[in-house]
Design brief:
Flavodoxin-like domain-containing protein, 3 helices, two-stranded parallel ribbon, 16% strand, FMN binding, alpha/beta
Length: 76
């Protein structure tokens, strides 16, 4: 809910949002991508580039996040 409150309070119109979710059970952010899109109707939400990570795999998190950022072109 804190993220939803943030998205409701701040105007991200014209911005590109690439969702990053962590969870400990529900997959794919449990429809969170559609909620982000609803809360930010004037933003571009890149659902296909989103990243979801299970808390059960935190030991591999650094390398997986690095790989994701590299694929997006944000890290070399």
């Amino acid at each position: 809910m804190p993220v939803w409150s943030f998205l409701e309070e701040y105007d991200l119109s014209g911005k590109t949002i690439i969702p990053f979710f962590t969870h400990n059970g529900s997959s794919s952010g449990a429809s969170s991508i559609s909620t982000v899109a609803e809360l930010c109707p004037d933003s571009t939400v890149l659902a296909d580039d989103s990243f979801t990570y299970s808390g059960n795999n935190v030991d591999e998190a650094q390398s997986d996040v690095d790989e994701w950022l590299t694929e997006l072109g944000y890290k070399n």
